[in-house]
Amino acid sequence: MGLFRLKMGEKHHEEALHHFEWLNPDDTSENARIFDYGDLFREVADALQKVGLFQEAFRFYSPIQQTTEHADLGYFMAMANCCVALGKAEDAEAYYLTVAENDPRHMECRVRLATLYEGDFGMNDEALKYINEALLIGRQEGRTRRRKRDDNRLEQLAIEFQRGPRPVGSPLAGTEPTGNGDRSKNAQNRTDDIRFLFDKLKELHPFIKKGDSDVVEDWLDIADALLRDFRTNRIFYPMARTMEFQGYTGDSQRKGKKGRTLLDEAQEIAVRLQKAMGDGTTEEDWSDTIPTDYHGIPFDEWLDIFLEYSLLTTKQGDPEEAYDALDGAATASIWFHSKPKSRLIHTCWFTCALHAQDEEALAGEARWFMKEYQFVTDTYRLFAMLSNLAGDPHKSLFHSSPNMKFMLRQIKAMDFTLPGMPQSPSLDTEELDVALLVLYGHILYSGNSFYPALNYFFRAYALDDQNPAVLLSIGLCFIHHSMKRQAENRHYLIMQGLSFMDEYRRVREKAGTPLQEKQEMEFNFARVWHSLGLLHLAVNGYQKVLDLSKRIQEENQQLVENHAEDGGDIDTVMGEADTPLRNSTQESRRFVEDFSPEAAYALQCIHVLSGDSKTAKGVTDQWLVV
């Protein structure tokens, strides 16, 4: 009845104590009820401590010392906690020391002792001694919780690959005895299997580079078993993604979060003590209490297994399996909060998507980079490049509704950062970047929304009126819109477009412009004439492209010869030249941008459609035959 009264609330505590008085805790005679009802004394004392009645709890705890049956370590911890609450620091110290002396792996009593020595006694040396012991216990207990799932896949693989006997006395990384013989033995065997299979992976790795299909299959089997073991450990995948990896005390987090609280408290005390003692140790110096390995294998090595497994499964034609593995790596708490590791994982992700020509995955990865590195020019260029490398141009995700909305939100976010009030300081145009505006303009352009695209191209033009990409885009928008049924004044739109094309020509013909850029300009102009049906101008433009191609190849050949004589390396740029060079260390290949195949094909089509098959054959033989 007393216990139920306690649970009914504070106003019933007096009645509960009246019921408890039947036990008569102050009786010290030989016939005291403590000798017959020791379990009831303990139950009542625990209940009173739980509701915060420490003085009354201490009255019922004290007689239990006369018995041996109920005076266990938990009892002494409870007595010590009551003494702390009642301000009896010396008595609390004695009880905590009793627990520490009788249980060398009791973490909580050492943390409480350190707190007492630091706060009540000012004995920092003693406090540091016990806090170091607590941190060591926390690490060792964490290691024993690494794996509990009953799965014999690892054992089967270890047997299949004919593991040799482990040398007598060799250590098993990542295991500690737990006091339970069977459990400790199973954990050691599992760790031993994982370490053996990991060594087998490294042994097979050189043969993978040679393309041995049997070795690749063996490597994938082993890696799959290891990754399944890793991914089924819930410590790496907390319910809340914001929770960082704090070690292998995650099991105790799910059991009231007691373990993690103690470990965190121990680390905080340790840092305070070091600062108070003038040791100069910072919080980072205690970071080694958080493990950096799993079954003795560093986390970086585990990440390498994830990435290589993904690349190999993609090459085997199973990109979905690769994406699943990469998702497991990306969401693991040990890498989720690390920008360099996350960037590496997602770089591997779009590499796999490129190999599989998976446009949807590429678009998703490009968006991830734009969200993580917002307003960084290279991320927008990456999005454009990845969208250009895969997918069907006629139904590309580049101009899909989700991507358009996403990019528009990016522009709105950028506009929100600009000063809007008259008294706000203005920004120099050199500080602004047109990449996002031009990219969104091209998304609209590729969806045949030419007028809306002009809005963003003109914003970019206001910031950079000498940008050839912006000038070309504006010119093409006007010209293409003139061909639509809704165009009101085709002649005006064409003239507007040609005026910007002339600006584009002027920028590309500046002194010092490379021949490749001049060739690009001539090709684009020829394409415009071709699309407008002005074939005589288009033929002249395409011919200029072919003439420039000869000069470009001669210039490239001369540069290659000069580099070969100097013994220097050849830089790689865009293009299609395929003259290989060798030096003492490597084979270098110089690529040069050249539009001659495209121009020759366009000329061939014009001549064939005009009935001049002889000229078309001459162009084909000279420029298009490999």
UniProtKB/TrEMBL annotation:
GO-annotated biological processes: transcription by RNA polymerase III
Stretches for region Disordered: 164-189
Protein name in the entry: Uncharacterized protein
GO cellular component: transcription factor TFIIIC complex
Matches recorded under InterPro entries: Tfc4/TFIIIC-102/Sfc4, TPR-like_helical_dom_sf
Source taxon at top rank: Eukaryota
